[in-house]
Amino acid sequence: MAGANSVQVAVPTRDTETAKFFQIAVWIVLTTILVVIVFEPVLVKAITGPETYDYPTHIRWAQFWDENGYLETPLPHFLYQGLLRLSHFFFPAATFNQIALGVGLGCYLGLAMILFSQIYGAMKELSPAVRGAATLVLTMLLMVADPLRLDSSSAVYDHYAGFVPINVYHNPTIVLLKPLALLLFLQVLHIFDGSSVSKSRLFLCAFLSVAATMAKPNYSIALIPALGLYVMIRIILRRPVHFGLLIIGVVVPIMVVIGWQLISVRGTGMGGILFAPFAVMIFMSPDDLIFLKFIGSIAFPLCVLMLYFRPALRDTMLQVAWLVFAAGAFYTYLLAEVLNPFYGNFIWSGEITLLLLFVASLLFVIKHHRSDLVNRRLSPRILLLLGVLILHTFYGLQFYQLWMAN
Prior knowledge:
Layout: H1 14-48, H2 55-68, H3 79-90, H4 96-122, H5 128-144, H6 172-188, H7 199-215, H8 218-237, H9 243-264, E1 273-275, H10 279-284, H11 290-297, H12 299-307, H13 309-313, H14 316-334, E2 335-337, H15 347-368, H16 370-374, H17 380-405
Antiparallel strand pairs: 1-2
Helix pairs in contact: 1-4, 1-5, 2-3, 3-4, 4-5, 4-6, 4-15, 6-7, 6-15, 7-9, 8-14, 8-15, 12-15, 12-17, 14-15
């Protein structure tokens, strides 16, 4: 006979597992539908719009490559064009504009599913319905959020000029980079968790390093110096570092691809970097508000850091995210290209690293308040941070509306 203090453990049955599967499937389907509803019009507008939207130019390069067997212009990062060509091989009846729409939706859905899985996994203590609904909302908030603004300008350009943007819609390669960079960021964290690394993880990390760099090197050029600094700090503090994953999975693949990219543009006039502190940002925003715009860009992660300073300093994900963003901000604010310096192509480094900092900050807050979430308590800090994130989303929706109206 069981004692009075015996504990009964509920064993999951096939029926409960099936119910859980259908519950999460419903929320995934709803997220997919919402992503298509929100971003399909954005893609149609960008693809059929003027070449200032970047999509028509990139699509033309892919079509020229497909028809002639070589690229029209030196293109050191051609993963987007390669995906369009590959898709056209499997769907020859589709136009390149239709293929671009499909690839673009695939990128947005890929990013949404990665965000969904990370946020859903961080809230495992909640009931399935609350967990699914909260995950859907937070996923969409991150995919639409943009910097806090100081005015209500109706010009699309004013909504990111002088800011570090989080989500812009006119460039296909940054859309492609986002899911790849997020996956790579999540794999990089295994370098520091002290666990063993399988061959499959090593291969996956190397593949993502190559793919992200070939999509757009702006994340990779920020990741390498940030990892270098972080590894030195961990060596000094005698913290674990998996050098095999670091070197074989990240450093070597990225450096090989970047080395090839630099060689491929040699003599074309596309290479060359200027140290030009704040020159690009001042040109884009001659209102002497660069510092305030920077704060408006990073308001949510900055609030997280200020409110949870000590625990944040001990969190590996936040440590890596802040260091990589610092490297991305260095490129954004202090460097420019020799050719066409005011195109602001280094701003992409700030954008992609800031998005990942938003993700890391949100996951940190969720994990830090698990007990509050279980008991459905919303502390003042959670309410404040949720308000700041919603404010980011408000300005993101405003930008979305202006983008679609212009």
